[in-house]
Write a structure and sequence with these properties.
Elements (H helix, E strand, L loop, with lengths): L1 H10 L14 E5 L4 H12 L3 E6 L2 H11 L5 E6 L5 H15 L4 E4 L14 H28 L6 E5 L13 H23 L5 E7 L9 H6 L5 H13 L8 E4 L6
Parallel strand pairs: 1-2, 1-4, 2-3, 4-5, 5-6, 6-7
Helix pairs in contact: 2-3, 2-8, 4-5, 5-6
Length: 259
C-alpha cells in the first residue's frame, strides 16, 4: 500500500511520502508484543528507526526483534505495564538514559472487555479506563516532556484509536467505545495545546475498523470483513511519511464491506 502511494506521488510530480527523514531516530511503541503494535514496531525498525517496544509480555518483543535479523534499525525491549504510572516513568527513564530522546510515540496498548455497563464486573471497566485512557495519557505526557527537554519540535504522537470512538456506543461495547471516544477528545485537545504553545509536534488519531488480532471475539472475525495488523502499520507509515507541514489529524481505516 505504502509503495503504491509513494510511486503514485512521484509520478504526479508532487511531494513524495517518505520515511527517510525518520531514519536513525527514536520511536516508542506501546503494546508491541503482538497484533497491531508488533506490526508497527517491526515496520519502523525496517525503516531504520531505533524502536523501543513496551509491553508486559516482553519475551514476545524479544522474539520479534530476533526475527527481524539484519534490519536497518534496532528493536529494543522494555517490560512495562502501561496502566501503571511507575512502570511508565521507568520505561521513559530507560529511553532517556539509553537513547537520549524520543521522536515518535505510538500509543497502541489497549484492552477490551465486551460486557454491557449493566452487568460488567467493575474491575473490567476500571482496566479499560486505566489502560485505554490513563495509560495513553501518561505515555503522551512522558514523551512530550522528553521531547521538550531535548528540543524536539518535529515529533509525532499517534494514538491507535478505533471506529468505535466515533459512533454511538451500543450493547456490549459501551465502556470500550467510551474509552475510545475519550481518545478522540484527547487527540483534539492535545492538538490545541500544541498549537497554543506554537509547537510543530503533530498528533494523529488513527481509527481502524475490525482487525485480526486477539482482541475481538473470534466469531466477529468469522462473520465480518476485517483488516490485517500490517494494514494499520502501513497507515502509520503513511501518516509519518507526509511532509512536515502536513498534519493528518484523523485517519479511519475500514475493511471493504464493513457495515
Amino acid at each position: 500500500m505504502l509503495k503504491q502511494l509513494t510511486a503514485r506521488s512521484r509520478d504526479l510530480g508532487g511531494n513524495c511520502f517518505t520515511m527517510e527523514r525518520w531514519s536513525g531516530r527514536v520511536a516508542v511503541v506501546t503494546g508491541a508484543s503482538g497484533g497491531i503494535g508488533a506490526s508497527i514496531a517491526a515496520e519502523l525498525t525496517k525503516k531504520g528507526l531505533q524502536v523501543v517496544g513496551l509491553a508486559r509480555r516482553s519475551e514476545k518483543i524479544e522474539e520479534l526483534s530476533k526475527s527481524l535479523g539484519s534490519s536497518q534499525g534496532k528493536l529494543y525491549t522494555v517490560k512495562c505495564d502501561v496502566s501503571k504510572e511507575s512502570d511508565v516513568k521507568e520505561a521513559f527513564k530507560w529511553v532517556k538514559d539509553k537513547l537520549g530522546v524520543v521522536d515518535i510515540l505510538v500509543n497502541n496498548a489497549a484492552v477490551a472487555y465486551f460486557n454491557s455497563i449493566i452487568d460488567a464486573p467493575t474491575d473490567e471497566l476500571k482496566k479499560m479506563l486505566d489502560l485505554n485512557v490513563l495509560g495513553l495519557s501518561m505515555c503522551t505526557k512522558e514523551a512530550l516532556q522528553l521531547m521538550k527537554e531535548k528540543g524536539v519540535d518535529d515529533g509525532h504522537i499517534i494514538h491507535i484509536n478505533s471506529v468505535a470512538g466515533h459512533r454511538p456506543p451500543s450493547g456490549r461495547f459501551t465502556m470500550y467505545s467510551g474509552t475510545k471516544h475519550a481518545v478522540t477528545a484527547l487527540t483534539e485537545g492535545l492538538r490545541r495545546e500544541l498549537v497554543q504553545q506554537k509547537s510543530k509536534i503533530r498528533v494523529t488519531s488513527l481509527s481502524p475498523g475490525l482487525v485480526k488480532t486477539d482482541m475481538p471475539p473470534e466469531q466477529y472475525l468469522k462473520d465480518y470483513p476485517s483488516l490485517n495488523p500490517e494494514d494499520i502499520a502501513d497507515a502509520v507509515m503513511y501518516v509519518l511519511g507526509v511532509p512536515p507541514h502536513v498534519q493528518i489529524h484523523e485517519l479511519t481505516v475500514n475493511p471493504v464491506g464493513q457495515s
